[in-house]
Amino acid sequence: MAMTAPFFKYGMFGDEASLVLAFLIGIGFGFFLERAGFGSARKLVSQFYLNDLAVFKVMFTAIVTAMLGVTYLGWIGWLDLSLVYLVPTYLLPQVVGGLLLGAGFVVGGYCPGTSVAATATGRVDGLVYVLGIFAGMFAFAELYPFLKGFYLSGSGEALTIPGTFGLPYGLVVFAVVLMAVGGFYGAGLLEKKFAAAGE
Amino acid sequence: MNPYLAGIGLGLVLLASFVLVGRGLGATGAFNSVIAWVVGGIAPEHARSNEFIAGYLGDGGASPLKSWLLFEVVGLFAGAMFSGLLAGRAKVMTEKGPRVSVRTRLAMAFAGGVLMAFGAALARGCTSGQALTGGALLNLGSWAFMITVFAGAYAMAYFVRWQWR
Question: Could you say which residues of chain B have pLDDT below 70?
Fold first, then answer.
């Protein structure tokens, strides 16, 4: 089958239409975040006290769903995966960023996407969190001249797990699915164990 | 909604984004575009001389607000509001545990947002742009990031327990 996707990269529509799609895709994104209960900080942080692992379950179900979708559409030759944007890898700043972001998640109760969903459903702490992101991001930008060296430490190539370790793409996909299924089973056990402790 | 069902829905939205536009979901970039717009409006010289902000200003032809992620995040807001109103979950309130005052909780929310911003800036994305999107694309940096997000949150959880329990 001839490659036809990603549609935008194949020139099927222009920038303006892509912005309309961004809005529509965003509606779907926000809808499912709120449906999952992620407009609530208490629900989100329950993940880190082990009495409700919905964050893990939703995140990994979404990752597996989209991963299987792109892998399948790539295999039948319909989607050109090389045209899908990959964020470049700067391992050390990304690892440090992850630790800070994780800490910020449990201190503030949200991540950027969920704080917007929380604000949209009237959560005052969500709105204050959004203001915190603006303040922090502005501070980061002002401090950028001092942080630039660290920010840019790393290769800056767009690395994938199969590419880096020389593993077949399908094998890594299979391993992620197995890991997710194992994780879902483990999450169920943890929830049972910590359900009482959570109240 | 059942978390696995919500996850499949979210995954299909992400897949649609890959297929239609060739990029995944995100959130942090939208905040950066707004900052670039504000700073660029108040102090254009300063904005252009700052490499981090200049990256979101583009070539100067179009407004920084004409950003894909910003349109997506406006949609996120609308979609979440629609779902919340539909389910009767939308109401003005502050999410907190029983042992903390509203004022303290809001101060913690602000502090968490600041921490999160530094983390997301260094990582070049957040839970949406890195963990979800990069996770599905088997991006090496995204997986390293995702593991450390959980590590950072679990390490910190004990110390802010009073806020939630």
Answer: none
